[in-house]
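User: structure tokens for this one?
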Amino acid sequence: MEKITAEEFDQLGLHGRGHSSSFYNWVFGLAVNEAIIIRKTEWKLSYPPTTIVNRIEKKYGRQYQRGSLPDRSGWAVKRVK
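Assistant:
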């Protein structure tokens, strides 16, 4: 165990309740009009990242625009509301 300061604690980037991936936390933390691109080479799961975005929209009432990149090399996600 180690003791840390309040500032160090604030910079840890902790997970919320239950299990959540770093991608989930990243999408959930987007501010309105912020966007990200996810490359297929970085994505290791069998389902697309838009599935996670759909879950966040349904559970928390946020709105995102999302879709595949024109060359199909990945996906783009933008928070709208």
